[in-house]
């Protein structure tokens, strides 16, 4: 898919999402961004899109609510005039001991990490069909893509991100006839989480065969590849510096 003059909705446009938005704008895409609480950060990202000469719209949505997923997608398509791509980046990443994971906290994670990805995709499909095709990019995790949890304390997150791979494959099959390609990215050590100590930072570097953190631009590069490709669908691409092979 040629990206110039196409449109994209990015859910969860903070940090890595902001860099993805900037790169897509640089390549000629108009961008819709969603936020739940971080309006200022979303507006800052939108400003960089406009500085690149592209249109940007910022929309608030609580993606744990199904009705708001549909409203978000329809609002983005209405504001931009069409919808060619959806990037499901919104995620809940929080460590909790198993004993604290009750029904509410289970739902908190899966509603955003899994259900919202499906519901946003479902709402986007009619718009992409009207445009003659499209692209959906979901986000898993290198640990989930490697098929084993590795770390305790992230049970709902791991389950959701493992299920994202299945969702991606099933949607790719369902939508192939519509020329809607569906893929996933499984990031590894891209950006250190807030509060990471120097020792923890270096431990990750040592555990990564390439010996470094990737940086946001590596995810933007992968997104661009999946949006531009016309023959890759149903894939989950690990962007992890080789963590999964060690």
Would you kindly provide a written description of the structure presented here, covering whatever features stand out?
The chain is α/β, with parallel strands linked by helices and 246 residues long. The chain has one domain (7-245): Rossmann fold (3-Layer(aba) Sandwich), CATH 3.40.50.720. 47% of the residues lie in helices and 15% in strands. A seven-stranded parallel beta sheet has the order 3-2-1-4-5-6-7, sandwiched between helices. The longest helix is centred in the middle third of the chain and has 29 residues, at 103-131. The radius of gyration is 17 Å and the shape is globular. The N and C termini lie far apart (35 Å). The mean pLDDT is 96.
Largest sheet: 7 strands, parallel
Total of domains: 1
CATH fold-level topology: Rossmann fold
The helicity comes to 40-55%
Mean pLDDT: 96
Please give the CATH architecture.
Answer: 3-Layer(aba) Sandwich
Total strands: 7
The unreliable regions are none
Q: Strand arrangement, largest sheet?
A: 3-2-1-4-5-6-7
**Which word captures the global form?**
globular
Strand content: 15-25%
Helix and strand content put the structural class at alpha/beta
Using only CA atoms, what is the Rg?
Answer: 17 Å
